[in-house]
């Protein structure tokens, strides 16, 4: 007997949707992409044809009115996440919203409350967390092999500064490197440590050429037990996508920590007492796993791995980082 599949609608034709999330859902066990919408109907039709999606809508409202859909994925610019998540919830649709889930913690709380009221599932699209290597890493840490964690360092940078029309370069749309890529090491440290940071200190480069958004930021998050995350993120810097976990007896290195192609190696490295080994990781599509984890919660009532409250807490940290960068001050996180 064929398993029931979650029927997805895609709200927008963003690059991340076309390049990664839609193919990921299409390759998942429990999901199928049934419809896509754009405010430009021709663009929706072209994208639907390109990706083999049956239905194209010329408005987001029309897609939400489609009663055959179970869930929506929202890859819209950051300032639109709150509005369309709440509207989707009110239409009875479960929501996978692209990171960062909102512009601030207050918006995230309102989104979570709206989804709870409507009885729909809300998840933030941090796909990297669904990759099995992070379970392997957490188990390795729990085994005590690298000793007590003393610090974490993460970096996620790229250079697209020449593309002046990019939505990432408009402040009012939620642009900036902390929102776009800094959220990954921030989220990863919280996930790995299972704790919340107590304070943030960030030094940032705000570019007048890019609507004064942070094009590069370097930060320190203070966690309990004197453990810290140091991170840097940027949209005007050479590309990096790495994470390092430092323990008293060893360290773990992830060369492709957040974005990894299904056909490329996701292996990581462990060094203990001077001996470095490579840990093999299965080749998987983390976007497909994310879609299946979401579907298992919606279709079969399985406990979600990451509750909406986690997204709210992540935004509290992001809020503090942005405030610290603007004020050039240490900001306590409450």
Describe the structure.
By secondary structure, this protein is α/β, with parallel strands linked by helices. The protein is built from nine helices and 15 strands. A nine-stranded mixed β-sheet has the order 14-13-12-11-7-10-9-8-15. It has a six-stranded parallel β-sheet with strand order 3-2-1-4-5-6, sandwiched between helices. The protein is globular, with a radius of gyration of 20 Å.
Short overview:
With 334 residues, the protein is α/β, with parallel strands linked by helices.
What's the arrangement of secondary structure elements?
Blueprint: E1 6-11, H1 15-26, E2 31-37, H2 41-51, E3 55-57, H3 60-64, E4 71-74, H4 81-90, E5 94-97, H5 105-118, E6 122-124, H6 132-143, E7 149-159, H7 177-193, E8 199-207, E9 213-222, E10 228-234, E11 236-247, E12 250-254, E13 268-272, E14 275-279, H8 286-300, H9 308-327, E15 331-332
Parallel strand pairs: 1-2, 1-4, 2-3, 4-5, 5-6, 7-10
Antiparallel strand pairs: 7-11, 8-9, 8-15, 9-10, 11-12, 12-13, 13-14
Helix pairs in contact: 1-8, 4-5, 5-9, 7-9
Q: Secondary-structure element order, as H and E?
A: EHEHEHEHEHEHEHEEEEEEEHHE
Shape: globular
Rg estimate, integer Å:
20 Å
Share in helix: 25-40%
For the termini, the CA-CA separation is 50 Å
Strand content: 25-35%
Mean pLDDT: 97
Biggest sheet, spatial arrangement of strands? 14-13-12-11-7-10-9-8-15
Structural class: alpha/beta
How large is the count of helical segments? 9
The profile of the biggest β sheet is: 9 strands, mixed
- Quantity of strands, as a count: 15
Low-confidence segments, ≥5 residues, pLDDT <50?
A: none
